Amino acid sequence: MDRKNLALLTCGIVLVGGLIFIFHHTSSQNFSFFGKSGKKETEGPSGPPHYEATAVVKEVLDGDTILVEILEVLIPREGVENKIDKVRLAKIDVEETRVSDARGKHNSVKNMSQSEYEETDYYRHALYSKNLVEALLLEENKVYLDFDDLAGNWKPYRGKFGRLIAVVYAKPEEGWVNINAKVLRRGFPEHTLITSFKSEFEADRWLENDYPYL
What we know:
Elements: H1 3-34, E1 53-62, E2 65-73, E3 84-89, E4 92-94, H2 99-102, H3 114-117, H4 121-136, E5 142-147, E6 164-170, E7 177-178, H5 179-187, E8 192-194, H6 203-206
Parallel strand pairs: 3-6
Antiparallel strand pairs: 1-2, 1-5, 2-3, 4-8, 5-6, 6-7
């Protein structure tokens, strides 16, 4: 075999070997990236959201506040411990069930008794929001808390009245649910408002059609 043919043969062997290597390498990457089914494995709407503690619901106090027992703090936060605590749903504000609380919002109820207040639309919408949260979070239900890192003008992660400020997630059989988003979407814009308090959360996102945790 002359030198020219030998060189061509050598080049051919190198080329075939290179193609085999590339094919094998790409196939192994595709297998791990797409999985056994051949479909790309990505975190879909049912994938877990970010959360920093787990808890169980002890009581629904109103449409934006719950009483919980914190079970486990996964990411340490100052003042957050394994104990009974109140959690205020971040970024939303619903009507009040007590006239004493409603007086700070509505001049028209300042001179009302509790029984008179319970005849108003304010109270009816407050009760609707509370019942909604109770339906979503049954007593002893496990919840997942994402604390608001920007809350805490008074104490870290807490609001004016000492309640922890958080997004509350539940995980029923059909997938993850953002309770804050559920309450906001059911009452917005007439009777459930997006608060103007400083927050890490973007509540407008919860109103978008493609928001996954509903």
